[in-house]
Amino acid sequence: MNRVKTAIVGASGYTGMELLRLLLIHPGVELVAATSRQEAGKSLGSVFPRFQKAPGADLAFIEPNPDAIAATGAQVAFLALPHGVAAEIARALLDRGLRVIDLSADFRLRDAAVYQEFYDHPHPAPEMLTQAVYGLPEIRAAEIAAAKLVAAPGCYPTSILLPLLPLLRENLIDPATIVANSMSGVSGAGKKADLTLLFCECNESARAYGVPKHRHLSEIEQELSLAAGEKVTISFLPHLIPVNSGIVTTTTAKLRSGVSPEAIGAALDKAYSDASFVRLLGRGGCADTKNVTRTNFIDIGWQVDSRTGRVILMSAEDNLGKGAGGQAVQCFNLMFGMDPTGGLQNF
Fold first, then answer.
1. What pLDDT is attached to residue 233?
2. Between vectors from CA 330 to CA 329 and to CA 333, what angle results, nearest 5°?
3. Which candidate in 97, 99, 253, 302 could, as Cys together with 76 as Cys, close a disulfide (CB 3.0–4.6 Å)?
């Protein structure tokens, strides 16, 4: 197999570390560049001792210079950068002939005005939004395979969208009644100095945050609206819980009149029976983060509350895996015609 020369831009954060973990042992990848301003000049193995003796761990971090990245011969770059920063380097790398998988929020939205509303600054490259493909592999495999620029979805959106999209497409639920409650591990906030993320602030505690307008609502509502064929506005309540990684989401919505419980299971089976990384737990199945952390799986269970006429959707994923790095590698596999499960079959 001809291995694809690959770069990771922003490889020293939590998501960057997850990408390194997956790509260093991916049979179709030759890692030729990993960037970090803070760690430039140091080897991957010295910054992350867990990777010592892994093939390629002697590769040194470099500055995130587009010319230097292109000079390595990289064919594709994963961008694990903050929103607002990724767009500039994405443009530069695309101009140099690389394909780009961006894990920031810079290319997830189709409307620059919505980006400004939710991210509090103008979009840095609005002319590029039409080029990007929203990277949910179970929903847009063909578009991802042909794309030059893929916008990897957010962690919360993945856990909410995959259970809901089949039901909206089949017109089984009333979109105006959707409420999503999510709980995420602390790594979802990224590697940064923040008083609210200190151990003593998070341990033995749980709290809601980002209410009522978390930034991820923008892409969630965009994708739900596309599936429903109408504008969808939902309530989304994220919570921080004292674990390193993992997201569990419980979403409820009113069933349409006359919809049977069996239709819920049938819609999910139709959408995901052949999906490598969606595990359907069936009616009454309650997804558990301990079964998905360090994997690229999302587990989905469901139940119907006959008293209220609401469907209850329960999902769990690793926010650094299926919610970030693992899903980005899934997109990479599609873009380069590889086995969709390549480098990701860990349990």
1. 98
2. 85
3. 99
Backbone angles phi, psi at 138, to 5 degrees: -70, -15
For the chain, domain boundaries? 4-131, 155-319
Q: What are 240-280's pLDDT values in tens digits?
A: 999 999 999 999 999 999 999 999 999 999 999 999 999 99
Q: Which pair of tokens denotes residue 198? A: 């200190």
Looking only at the bridges linking them, the beta strands covering 99-102 and 133-134 are: unpaired
Residue numbers annotated as active site: 155
- Residue by residue, what is the 3-state secondary structure of the chain? CCCEEEEEECCCCHHHHHHHHHHCCCCCEEEEEEECCCCCCCEHHHHCHHHCCCCCCCCECECCCHHHHHHCCCCEEEECCCCCCHHHHHHHHHHCCCEEEECCCCCCCCCHHHHHHHHCCCCCCHHHHHHCEECCHHHHHHHHHHCCEEECCCHHHHHHHHHHHHHHHCCCECHHHCEEEEEECHHHHCCCCCHHHCHHHHCCCCEECCCCCCCCHHHHHHHHHHHHCCCCCCEEEEEECCCCCCEEEEEEEEECCCCCHHHHHHHHHHHHCCCCCEEEEEECCCCCHHHCCCCCCEEEEEEEECCCCEEEEEEEECCCHHHHHHHHHHHHHHHCCCCCCCCCCCC
Sheet strands side by side (includes 4-9): 29-35, 4-9, 76-79, 99-102, 149-151, 133-134
CA-CA-CA-CA torsion for 312, 315, 319, 322, nearest 10 degrees?
A: -130
Say how many residues make up the chain: 347
Residue 308 tokens, joined: 């209220």
Look at the domain 4-131 and name its fold: Rossmann fold (3.40.50)
d(CA 324, CA 215): 16
Averaged pLDDT score across all residues of the chain:
96
Euclidean distance between CA atoms 135 and 145, whole angstroms: 10
Would you give the distance in Å from CA 323 to the centre of its chain? Answer: 3
Tokens 């409820």 correspond to what residue? 252
Domain 155-319 has CATH 3.40.50.720: no
